[in-house]
Amino acid sequence: MKALVIAGTRSGVGKTSLSLGIMAALRRRGLRVQSFKVGPDFIDPGHHRLATGRISHNLDGWMLSKDDNLALFRHYSQGCDVAIIEGVMGVFDGYGATSEDGSTAQIAKWLGIPVLLVVDASRMSRSVAALVSGYVHFDADLSITGIALNKVGNTRNIYRTTSPLSRLGEAIASVTSIPIWGEIPKNSVPEIPSRHLGLWMAEEDNLGDEYIETLAEATETYLDLDGLLASLPDWRGEAAVEGMPTGRPIQNVRIAIARDAAFCFYYEDNLRLLREAGATLIEVSPLRDKFPQDIDGFYFGGGYPELHGERLSQNQGFLGGLREFAAQKCPIYGECGGLIYLSQGIEVQESRYRFAGIFPFWTRLGDRPNLGYTKIETTGNHPFCQQPLRVKGHRFHYSQLISETVPPEIPTCYQAHSWRIGEFPEGYVLGNSLASYVHLHFRSNPEFAKQFVQACRGLY
Predict the structure, then answer these.
(1) pLDDT tens digits, one per residue of 120-156
(2) Is residue 247 part of a domain?
(3) Where is the active site (predicted)?
């Protein structure tokens, strides 16, 4: 199997478009392509799935150990011809100013996979050599197998005369022998629209197979894909590591999962761990479905409830069923968008949408993000966990609680810590309902998933 990490010098250089183009081009050739995404990202993996036809999986050096990342990569890439890992932010960006934890470079080195470095070459000439030289020589342990120049703005930079190299190529060749595998002209690939939480979702009706096909065509046109593939060694990886169970327990707990355009942010590995703990997952849509019957618990992930406020608030049958479910002390777990939905509702500019009302506070959509890796330790108020657990996750939200609507006596069950803001209480609890802005990665402590399933089973 061949394996490649696609990283950028920074965010916004086009690594997602190039990653999708390479994935789709390889799939068109009949190759089995497995994709991965570095970091806490729920949106890019959805685009990966369109390009490869397979579920994409997250790798993360801050939330998960080296062995966990190796196990996940080895497990999900089995039987594939090529594994493509899309990086996060700039190749060396991660947790904090001096640590490589959570960075693309860390994952590439842990897995022993070479890096294709994507460089935004717009409005540059010889200076591109200084930029590339800095990245190539910053970390001698990182294997950079080639450069892809994107957004090349001057056609003279890609015009070949008697020299096999463009002007940009000549500049880079003066400081490094690392090959340039392609120069992609500005405006030659479509840009995926963005909103406040990132790119538009892959399933939205302005996107589709057409843009994936366009990316594949551009990749074939401007990238030496054959040469790039031939340069990659077969991935062997380290010796087998533990971490991925093989058996399946008795599936005797039914947990509903809110999944539609409003609730779409889930780590696929979280769902896998719930199944491994004995849960049958029932996907339902709070936008259009009735409240499900014969379930033992409910998991509301993040997403965009603020974009679908009117439809969510109009589905009174679902909201009523959820309130009754909460009143019966059945376990309910909501993350971020789930917190919004379990609250009284959300204010979006001049509009106010009323939701489940299980928690007494209101939320409001702001214009600045609250984000960062976050670790939590559960406290004695936790409705699911019977002993203290440490779990890692992240926050990324534009909404906030309206402080004057938060009763001072409402209990919390997390002691949270973030590099940016230090210690703070989190995880609001009423009955057996838990709402939090933290997206937890269950693989960082699988006991959390087990105890949630146990609570749904009625053992706590």
Answers:
(1) 999 899 999 999 999 999 999 999 999 999 999 865 4
(2) no
(3) 336 (nucleophile)
Q: Please, which residues have CB within 8 angstroms of residue 192's CB and are 6 or more apart in sequence?
A: 16, 17, 47, 199, 200, 207, 211
The number of CA neighbours under 13 Å toward the Cβ of 311 is: 14
Look up residue 415 and give its amino acid: Q
Q: Degrees (nearest 5) of the Cα angle 208, 209, 215? A: 105
Helix-strand-coil percent breakdown of the chain, rounded to 5?
30, 30, 40
Here the tokens at position 55 are 């579920």
For residue 322, give Cα distances in angstroms to 7, 292, 353, 385.
43, 9, 17, 22
CB neighbours (10 Å) of residue 162? Answer: 4
Q: What is the CA radius of gyration of the chain?
A: 23
Report yes or no on 237 lying in a domain.
no
Residue 7 identity: A
Whether the pLDDT of residue 195 is over 60: the answer is no
Backbone angles phi, psi at 276, to 5 degrees: -65, -25
CB 88 within 8 A of CB 67: no
Residues 145 and 221 placed together within one structural domain of the fold: yes
Domain membership of residue 190 (yes or no) is yes
Shared domain for 277 and 343, answered yes or no, is: yes
135 in a domain, yes or no?
yes
Q: What is the DSSP pairing of strand 412-418 with strand 363-378? A: antiparallel
Q: Which residues are catalytic?
A: 336
Question: Domain check: are 297 and 399 in the same one?
Answer: yes
Which of 200, 231, 262 is at the close of a domain?
231
Global confidence as pTM: 0.91
Give the alpha-carbon dihedral of 178, 180, 181, 186, to 10 degrees: 150
Residue-range definition of the domain harbouring residue 203: 2-231
- 181 and 307 fall within a common domain: no
Neighbours of 421 (CB within 10 A): 12
DSSP label at residue 308: G
Which residue in the block uniquely carries the two structure tokens 């500019």? 349
Name the 3-class secondary structure at 139.
coil
392 vs 203, residue with greater confidence: 392
Greater pLDDT, 89 or 237: 89
**Interatomic CA distance for residues 423 and 421, integer angstroms:** 7
* Residues 425, 437 contacting (CB under 8 angstroms): no
Half-sphere CA count of 133, side-chain side, radius 13 A: 13
- Mean pLDDT of the 241-250 span: 58
Q: Are strands 363-378 and 57-59 parallel, antiparallel or unpaired?
A: unpaired
Same domain, residue pair 192 and 264: no
Residue 403: phi, psi to the nearest 5? -55, -35
Of 231, 265, 285, the last residue of a domain is 231
Give 306's contacts (C-beta < 8 A, 6+ positions apart): 340, 346, 348, 353, 365, 399
Domain count, the chain: 2
